[in-house]
Amino acid sequence: MEFGAKLDISAVDGYTRLEKVSFDAYNEASYLIEVIERYKARVGVYPSRILADKIYRNRGNLKFCREKGIRLSGPVLGRPPKTAVIDKRQDYVDICERVEVERKFSLAKLKCGLGLIRTRLPDTDLCAIALSIVVLNLRKVLYAQFQFFMPELNGFCVYQKLVIIQ
C-alpha cells in the first residue's frame, strides 16, 4: 500500500513529463485521452504509438486511438480468437521500450529525491514532486552535454564507468 500523491508521467525522447498528480485515488485510464490531446497541442501531431500498462486498454481509449491512427500496445480485450496472429516480436519490443517509464520512476526515487519526500502539506508535496521531475530531466540534459563536450573520453574506462553509474 502506498500513501501520498499518485502521479502519472510520460517519457518522450528520454525526457519525463509530469502528466497528473492527485492525492485522491483515481483510474489512470480515464485521463489517457486528455494526455494524448495535450501531446497533440504541444507537438502538433498525434503520437504514432502509446506504450502503456494494461489498465489503459479499455474500449473508450482503444476506440479513440483507432480513430486517430494511434497504436496502443498490448493484448486485445477479452479472449483472443483462435485464428489470431500475435506478433511476438513487436510485443517484445513494446515491453522493452515500456520499461523506460518504470526506469524513470526508479531513477526519480533513488537519485532525484522522489522517494525522500517528507513534507506534510499538499502544496509542498507538489513542489517536491515537480522538482524531482525537473532534476530528472536536468540529469538527461547534463549527460547529453557531457557526451558532446567530452568525446575524447569515449575510449577511457573512467568514462565507461560513468555511463553505468548514471
Task: Characterise this structure.
- The chain has helices spanning 32-43, 59-68, 88-111, 122-149, 157-165; strands at residues 6-12, 15-22, 49-50, 71-72.
- It is mainly alpha-helical.
- Strands 1-2 form a two-stranded antiparallel ribbon.
- Residues 157-166 have low confidence and may be disordered.
Domain module tally: 1
Span of the ends, CA to CA? 29 Å
CATH class: Alpha Beta
Q: What is the CATH topology classification name?
A: Nucleotidyltransferase, domain 5
Which band does the percent of strand residues land in? Answer: 5-15%
The major sheet is characterized as: 2 strands, antiparallel
Helix content: 40-55%
Query: How do the SSEs run, as a string of H and E?
Result: EEHEHEHHH
> What is the typical, i.e. mean, pLDDT?
83
Q: Please name the CATH architecture.
A: 2-Layer Sandwich
Q: Tally the helices: what do you get? A: 5
The total beta strand count reads: 4
From the helix content, strand content and strand pairing, which structural class follows?
mainly alpha
Uncertain spans: 157-166
Q: Name the shape in a single word.
A: globular
Spatial order of the strands forming the largest sheet: 1-2
- Gyration radius, rounded: 19 Å
What keyword list fits this structure?
166 residues; mainly alpha; Nucleotidyltransferase, domain 5; two-stranded antiparallel ribbon; two-stranded parallel ribbon; 4 strands; 11% strand; globular; disordered C terminus
